[in-house]
Specification:
By secondary structure, this protein is mainly alpha-helical. The chain contains 9 helices and 3 strands; from the N terminus they run H-H-H-H-H-H-H-E-H-H-E-E. Among the domains are: 12-110, no CATH class; 173-235, Structural maintenance of chromosome 1. Chain E (Arc Repressor Mutant, subunit A), CATH 1.10.10.580. A hairpin with a 4-residue loop joins strand 2 (220-225) and strand 3. The longest helix has 31 residues, at 83-113. The chain is elongated, with a radius of gyration of 26 Å. 13% of the residues are buried.
């Protein structure tokens, strides 16, 4: 699960659940696709604040990437996903459901702890203070040996450093939209088939989302070309 690092920022699962519950939706792929825009807008506000730790921001961006993948699959039913991508979507759904269950349990536990008396015992035992009553087999030597083993295991974990390198160039939606507008300023129109030709799956998804946002901003229109049997993107 995600740990809250600061008072002002919560984890991506908590924010995602908040957006879903605000629209009174069940946790499904369709509901995740519907709140993608709101989640991306929230991530953009985090990027503008220097107080956010890089690790927290990375978790938000990773979750946003999964949401974009889910939304792309909903918008493009014929889009084939790799087995690991399908597994990532299922993992996000299951983690979100589990997070909601744990959150509800946490609310219930907090209500219990607010009561004056949360420990119940026999009346004659209430006057006895807490005591430490270890097993007779535990000695100073065994405790010393156990502590040394724990410290040794912690030291080994601390020394292990996982390194990963990302060779692929990362592109954002705003840059893709600008490039698409520049292209349309030159050619006026372009078909989706030509745009997607020779592109990788992630580039196709990014281009398609760029087209949708440009349509929303009324910069371009999308028309069906009956002769060629494809969709034509035209600048306004």
């Amino acid at each position: 699960m995600f740990n809250v690092a600061t008072v002002n920022y919560s984890g991506p699962l908590e924010k995602l659940l908040e957006l879903i519950e605000a629209q009174k939706l069940d946790i499904t792929r369709i509901s995740l696709a519907q709140v993608t825009g709101d989640f991306l807008a929230y991530v953009e506000t985090l990027q503008k604040k220097r107080a956010v730790e890089p690790k927290i921001l990375a978790d938000f961006i990773a979750t946003a990437a999964k949401l974009i993948l889910i939304k792309s699959k909903i918008l493009l039913p014929n889009l084939k996903l790799a087995s690991d991508e399908e597994e990532e979507i299922k993992t996000l759904e299951s983690r979100l459901i589990l997070y909601k269950q744990l959150k509800n349990v946490g609310i219930a536990l907090r209500s219990i702890t607010k009561k004056d008396e949360i420990i119940y015992a026999r009346e004659y035992l209430k006057s006895i203070g807490p005591i430490f009553y270890p097993s007779q087999t535990i000695t100073v030597a065994t405790l010393d040996g156990t502590i040394k083993k724990i410290l040794g295991a912690i030291a080994q974990v601390r020394d292990v450093k996982e390194t990963k390198s990302v060779a692929r160039e990362l592109r954002n939606l705003e840059d893709t939209m600008q490039e698409l507008l520049q292209q349309l300023n030159t050619t006026t129109t372009s078909s989706l088939t030509k745009m997607f030709a020779g592109k990788e799956r992630n580039e196709i998804v990014l281009l398609f989302l760029a087209v949708l946002h440009l349509i929303k901003l009324q910069h371009v229109t999308l028309q069906n070309h009956e002769t060629e049997g494809t969709m034509i993107v035209k600048s306004i």
